[in-house]
Design a protein that fits this description.
alpha/beta; 303 residues; 14 strands; 10 helices; globular; binds flavin mononucleotide
């Protein structure tokens, strides 16, 4: 077993928020998917205080090396999630991490407080990629903005581990990670999607996506994820969840050697819903005999 912020995990692979719907997977594949659950912990899609419809279609554009999505965080809102989804997710054979987002500090605090009370929830992840309605700043793009958010929110998490999901769309994710650590984050996760767009082939000058721009993910962002994980690891001592374009064990091991303690698989799960299991097995056989996080150790293992 691996210890992640006091939570025992069977291996080092989890899902990226919003890229694996455990409830829909159970409907499609039956209880077998819970018996062979692909991830060591399940990270929920982002939950907001009020329900959200998400962005107008089209919501996806396929790239040669990944996806641009402008899903827009549709969800049932806190009350709907607690009523309808949490009881089903509580049956998962792995710990549940609730991912939350709000555009006011008070909203984030309410979400965190509501999940902190629930025994079904092992940890919280803050998605800080949205603007603060009062300051207009992206909450996770500015170290001072994030520090103020965490000062407000951290007490509401009580003893639950609090993970801050960093945005790559900022001047220095490492500066933001350092602020997160100093202001009470127990771990950081990165990278979220990179802002991008595609032009509509049939309407010159118009964007394809209903939301205008979207988030780029998949193999196209892997090199950026590696660089940012390495920079963040050099600045913080708290655990790092690394993600971005992981498709196989080799990619997961690369992120671990860049400094990630845990690795998340996102876009690859759309192609292969059991990718998490495959990648965990491949990564653990590649890592056999080596310390998981060589970036922290005295020796760097070269391959
Ligand atoms: C369709 C889609 C939906 C996503 N939804 C969320 C979300 O609700 N909350 C969040 O924090 N990240 C969300 N993400 C970002 C992923 O969790 C992950 O950070 C990112 O996709 C990079 O990993 P990948 O390249 O392996 O997909 C989403 C990504 C995709 C592709």
């Amino acid at each position: 077993m691996i210890d992640f912020c006091g939570i025992p995990l069977a291996h080092r692979i989890v899902n990226g928020s919003g890229t694996f719907d455990a409830i829909a997977a159970r409907r499609a594949f039956g209880d077998a998917i819970y018996e062979q659950f692909p991830f060591a912990a399940f990270v929920s899609k982002t939950v907001t205080l009020e329900p959200r419809q998400g962005n107008p279609p089209p919501r996806l554009w396929e790239l040669p090396g990944g996806l641009i999505n402008s899903i827009g965080l549709p969800n049932k809102g806190l009350a709907g999630y607690l009523r309808e989804d949490l009881p089903q997710l509580a049956e998962l054979p792995v710990p549940l991490i609730a991912n939350v987002m709000g555009s006011r500090r008070e909203d984030v605090a309410r979400l965190v407080a509501a999940f902190a009370e629930r025994d079904e929830v092992a940890a919280l992840e803050l998605n800080v990629s949205c603007p603060n309605v009062k300051t207009g700043l992206i909450m996770g793009a500015d170290p001072r903005e994030l520090a103020a958010l965490l000062d407000h929110v951290r007490p509401h998490a009580q003893a639950k581990p609090l993970i801050v999901k960093l945005t790559p769309n900022c001047a220095s994710p490492a500066d933001v990670a350092a602020a997160a650590e100093q202001h009470g984050a127990d771990a950081v996760s990165l990278i979220n999607t990179l802002r991008g767009m595609a032009m509509d082939p049939h309407r010159p000058g118009e964007p394809w996506l209903g939301g205008g721009t979207g988030g780029v993910s998949g193999p196209a962002v892997r090199a950026i994820a590696l660089a940012q994980v390495r920079e963040v690891r050099a600045r913080v001592a708290i655990p790092v969840i690394g993600m971005g374009g992981v498709q196989c064990g080799r990619h997961a091991v690369d992120l671990q050697r860049a400094g990630a303690d845990i690795v998340a698989v996102g876009t690859e799960s759309f192609r292969d819903p059991l990718a998490g299991r495959r990648i965990a097995a491949e990564a653990s056989s590649l890592m056999e005999g080596f310390p998981a996080n060589t970036a922290r150790g005295p020796e760097v293992v070269r391959v």
